[in-house]
Write a structure and sequence with these properties.
It contains 18 helices and 16 strands. The chain is globular, with a radius of gyration of 21 Å. It starts with a strand and ends with a helix. The chain binds zinc ion. Homodimer. Within each dimer, one monomer is responsible for RNA recognition and catalysis, while the other monomer binds to the replacement base PreQ1.
Amino acid sequence: MSAITFTIEKRLPKFLGRAGRLETSHGVIETPAFVTVGTKATVKALTIEQIRDAGAEVVLANTYHLYFEPGEKIVKAAGGLGAFMGWNGPTMTDSGGFQAFSLGAAFEKGVGKISKRGISQEEKRSESLIEERSRDISIRPESPLATITEDGVSFKSYKDGSTHLFTPERSIDIQHDIGADIIFAFDECTSPDASEAYQKEALERTNRWAKRSLKRHQELQESERGSTFREIQSRTSGTPQALFGIVQGGRVPEFRRRSATFTSSLPFDGFGIGGSFDKKDIGTAIEWVNEILPEEKPRHLLGIGEPLDLFEAVQNGCDLFDCVTPTRLARNASLYTTQGKINILNAEFRSDLSPVDGTCRCYTCLNYTKAYLAHLFRSKELLSNTLASIHNLTFIISLVKGIRQAILEGTFSKMKEDFEKRYLS
Ligand SMILES: [Zn+2]
């Protein structure tokens, strides 16, 4: 029996987009859905009640960070990720690969720098890392921290310089201990500026790692079969887990198609789409992949969460999206509105007694003014992070829920057009 059930409720005419329901043992995710990022088993500055009130249905945590702190065995002893953080809904973990690379080889190759060709997905994903990194004085970004071999990635801890090895098997073992409902295969993330030859090599390695991730996942599931509940709990966190394969391939259409074809051929429960995208053709790049991926399985676009990108991703067949951007922007005083982003530190907002967005029903907009938020940020008050995060998270989750509703009602194209017009005005 599969750990998840995915049902398509309605398709978008002429496009690959769809609205569906993803059932996990911790509840249903109505798709398309924004996946809230709780990197270290916490959504920065927010309580579980505030996350739930923002409309979140699913939380994604980071394997790499939980491996170092508090360690996967503690999360497992607590009953798994959800129980540990007090969240009773669906959870996900990424494979930890991206961080192992970003803090070493990928960083050396330029991940995290702005690509001349546009804003890359890696850049968005690594921004939060660099943010994490900058808090730790022991980090020396100039030193090579990661080495890639056929076996996996060996890297130095960003905490104390000790050496660690992540292999596909190790990543799956850790993710089984953490016990999220949906976990990801271990892949190599290449820099957006890597050569074509290197991208090809990395792609082939990622394919071999996909098979190894799946094999390890199946072995662990097999050993859980026929065991008593208590025995299963002692080995995993007691949650039936779904494994998503990852489609890579950078900017080269042929590589993306090849990766999608290979990953589709393996019995994964769903798919993650990774790699870097040009901002201007993100929709086309996703379309190449989703034309190939089996329609009946869910698709998660990794690290994308800007409002306009979400419309493109949904239209071209993605069901789930995770991104640190909404909450990271919030902590940096940048707030979403239906008229585009605003920086609350701008002088004009000091005396603005209207809510951040008049159409938003979040706790912040219902109770506070722009002037109050501007004051909190200028005074460097802790509450600024909480109120701003509540707003941005509610905004982005509500937007995706609205997109879902528009697909169901047959008004997607009109909604997209109206939103773009206002947001870019
Ligand atoms: Zn609001």
